[in-house]
């Protein structure tokens, strides 16, 4: 018989908030993808920044859709998650697109840093010259790496599932518990490593940009003319610092979500989920207002509707 879904009032309210966040985030990222695709068709090409934004928008739309479906089914139709195929497909796709979202976001911050920061280091100058050619390969590498991480996680989960099925005797209870903890630790350590690696890229990008802005400001203190490079520094710093603040909170929420996976649903996990679903939409909205082309396209919408 179908299992009754015991959804409390605050869980239903949280689900309604998450649904609104998912629709808003999907719409914002779909706007970015549409604008960039139209520009791609017109110009027959995209610059490196637009390529990163396009892949970021696609990965965030996919992540929001799969994560919301999994969250919705787990609340109202928990029996469907007992079907191993559905559970594996939703979890694997959601995890893959989440990794892609985090790494492509980190790539965007690194791209801003390399393009705008000014350092006399030979390696940094080499990166500045070659970054446009490296971006497609870098994005391809992030997608392959995200897929590889999902496959490793899937193998760990499969091993854990087989151990639970084959070892059900009471005398092996402690051995099964120890093996389960080891597999969970491996899976959680892998996820934490992914989050920490992307977070470090964002931190270093913000620090290098801030240091470059400070050096450039000192050099231009005696120059009364308007400096376009200074304006580019400031625009990039606003985008990267806002992302750093959001990413820091997001990183804490991701770690907390790992810690709360073995515990029952409570207020804390619901608040964590609410923020995690809001992050892709809010950050994409910041990216729209920091990009002149996207901001101009967004401001055209009210006049078109009118």
TrEMBL record:
UniProt GO MF annotations: bitter taste receptor activity; G protein-coupled receptor activity
The keyword Transmembrane helix appears for this protein: yes
Record-annotated membrane-spanning stretches: 12-41, 53-73, 85-114, 135-156, 189-214, 240-261, 267-290
Domain of life: Eukaryota
Entry keyword annotation includes Membrane: yes
Membrane topology: Multi-pass membrane protein
Listed Pfam families: TAS2R
UniProt keywords, alphabetically: G-protein coupled receptor, Membrane, Receptor, Sensory transduction, Taste, Transducer, Transmembrane, Transmembrane helix
Subcellular location: Membrane
GO CC annotations, alphabetized: membrane
SUPFAM superfamilies associated with the record: Family A G protein-coupled receptor-like
Family that this chain belongs to: Belongs to the G-protein coupled receptor T2R family.
PANTHER family per record: TASTE RECEPTOR TYPE 2 (PTHR11394), TASTE RECEPTOR TYPE 2 MEMBER 40 (PTHR11394:SF47)
Protein name: Taste receptor type 2
Organism listed in the record: Molothrus ater (Brown-headed cowbird)
Organism placement in taxonomy: Eukaryota, Metazoa, Chordata, Craniata, Vertebrata
The encoding gene: Tas2r7_2
């Amino acid at each position: 018989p179908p299992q009754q879904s015991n959804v409390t009032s605050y869980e239903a309210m949280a689900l309604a908030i998450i649904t609104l966040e998912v629709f808003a985030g999907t719409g914002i990222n779909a706007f970015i993808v549409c604008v960039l695709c139209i520009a791609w068709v017109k110009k027959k090409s995209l610059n490196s920044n637009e390529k990163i934004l396009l892949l970021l928008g696609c990965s965030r739309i996919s992540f929001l859709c799969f994560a919301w479906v999994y969250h919705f089914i787990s609340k109202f139709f928990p029996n469907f998650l007992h079907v191993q195929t559905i559970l594996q497909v939703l979890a694997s796709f959601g995890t893959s697109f989440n990794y892609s979202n985090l790494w492509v976001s980190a790539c965007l911050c690194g791209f801003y840093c390399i393009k705008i920061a000014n350092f006399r280091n030979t390696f940094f100058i080499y990166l500045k010259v070659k970054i446009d050619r490296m971006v497609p390969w870098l994005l391809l590498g992030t997608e392959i790496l995200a897929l590889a991480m999902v496959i490793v996680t899937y193998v760990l989960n499969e091993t854990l599932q087989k151990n639970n099925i084959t070892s059900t005797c009471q005398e092996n209870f402690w051995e099964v518990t120890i093996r389960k903890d080891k597999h969970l630790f491996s899976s959680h350590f892998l996820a934490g490593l992914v989050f920490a690696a992307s977070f470090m890229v964002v931190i270093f990008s913000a620090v290098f940009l801030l240091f470059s802005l400070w050096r450039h400001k000192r050099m231009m203190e005696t120059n009364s003319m308007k400096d376009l490079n200074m304006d580019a520094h400031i625009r990039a710093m606003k985008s990267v610092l806002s992302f750093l603040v959001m990413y820091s909170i997001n990183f804490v929420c991701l770690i907390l979500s790992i810690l709360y996976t073995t515990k029952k649903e409570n207020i804390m996990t619901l608040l964590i989920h609410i923020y995690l679903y809001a992050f892709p939409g809010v950050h994409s909205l910041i990216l729209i207002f920091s990009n002149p082309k996207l901001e101009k396209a967004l401001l055209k919408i009210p006049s078109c509707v009118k």
